[in-house]
């Protein structure tokens, strides 16, 4: 499973593409699996997150591996860099030097996303204190219309979506870095270790052969080692 999270996973001209999608497709091909990109379901993040927590034989990507999540899933990766930030309109001139200063602003998050978890961990705010949406586009539009002051999300994804939605990203800025980490393929905890090890070995081969670097360059992404 995946969500719309460009440039890692997204739909263009009716086709699911992105750096994570291409990596998964290549891994499945090398495994000689019957599964293909056509078997990947696109779901809202919160729903997909619950499914991979509860159901065997499921996986979700691209997921930031955080301290809170690390023991909830089994992991294959890393597959890309992750920079979760707070983004604001430049004209508001918001300056944040420590987590407690975040509390005075209206903050948009995506349900169960790493950005939401990081804001809660760093500020002590609860889910009820946040403006929770099912997808990033909703919060980007709220930010543009001044319905929220800050949006907590992956920096690369916000910039990509803004361009696609006709919003000039130059009018926005990162005002606080919540976390710099890595994206992974996340699997249900009951996934056999043999499968996880096999997929990790194949991913490592793809990296060593240069195919991984080519995919990252195609989508103008930082390389996650």
From TrEMBL:
Pfam families per record: SBP_bac_3
InterPro entries the record matches: Solute-binding_3/MltF_N
All copies of domain Solute-binding protein family 3/N-terminal, residue ranges: 1-223
Protein name: Amino acid ABC transporter substrate-binding protein
Organism: Desulfosarcina widdelii
């Amino acid at each position: 499973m995946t969500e719309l999270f460009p440039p890692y996973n997204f739909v263009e001209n009716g086709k699911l593409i992105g750096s994570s999608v291409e990596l998964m497709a290549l891994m499945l091909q090398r495994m000689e699996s019957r599964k293909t990109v056509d078997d990947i379901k696109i779901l809202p993040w919160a729903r997909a997150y619950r499914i991979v927590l509860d159901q065997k034989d499921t996986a979700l990507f691209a997921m930031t591996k955080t301290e809170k999540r690390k023991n909830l899933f089994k992991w294959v990766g890393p597959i890309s860099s992750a920079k979760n930030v707070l983004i604001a309109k430049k004209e508001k001139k918001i300056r944040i030097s420590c987590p407690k200063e975040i509390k005075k602003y209206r903050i948009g998050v995506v349900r169960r996303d790493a950005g939401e978890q990081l804001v809660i961990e760093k500020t002590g705010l609860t889910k009820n204190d946040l403006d929770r949406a099912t997808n990033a586009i909703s919060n980007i539009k709220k930010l543009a219309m001044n319905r929220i002051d800050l949006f907590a999300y992956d920096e690369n994804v916000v910039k990509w979506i803004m361009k696609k939605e006709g919003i000039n990203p130059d009018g926005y800025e990162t005002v606080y870095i919540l976390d710099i980490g890595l994206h992974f393929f996340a699997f249900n905890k009951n996934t056999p270790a043999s499968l996880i090890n096999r997929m990790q070995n194949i991913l490592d081969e793809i990296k060593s052969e240069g195919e991984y670097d080519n995919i990252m360059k195609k989508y103008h992404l930082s390389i996650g080692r």
